[in-house]
């Protein structure tokens, strides 16, 4: 037997990719304590905590508006399956946390979707789970976004469109104002 045949089977590792955005990052450097350079291993039995308190939180956000412990992520395996998941729990008494459109108050928790946006205050975090097989640990890979993850959507004008299909803005652009016409006159 060769050494390759005797070697342990290599496991893939679940990786949680987190892309962070804050509008004042350039001025305040709120993410200065996060390691954006490389993947980081987290033991499966540890909770990954995010917040301001460096003695408790593994991932520190340097902002007085962030709670000492803002939220946590717990790695777990679903009952009677081989599927690994993350659970997110809001640990802030003052700030609600949203995961996609689901609002979490203090101590509320849900399963983290495989791709979602986590928001609290001015913070936006895109979370993406890359599946793996390892049961002993998972990895985090942090990224910094240059632009907002959630873009403000411009809603079209809510002006009613008349039955004739001609928008009032058509008349305004020609210097005329719309006039009311009795439908029997058409």
UniProtKB/TrEMBL annotation:
Major localization class: cytoplasm
Occurrences of domain FHA (ranges): 49-121
One term under GO cellular component: cytoplasm
This protein's UniProt keywords: Cytoplasm, Immunity, Innate immunity
Domain of life: Eukaryota
Annotated localization: Cytoplasm
InterPro entries: FHA_dom, SMAD_FHA_dom_sf, TIFA
Any Gene Ontology biological process: innate immune response
A Pfam family annotated for this UniProt entry: FHA
Similarity section: Belongs to the TIFA family.
Protein name stated in the entry: TRAF-interacting protein with FHA domain-containing protein A
Species of the source: Callaeas wilsoni
Gene: Tifa
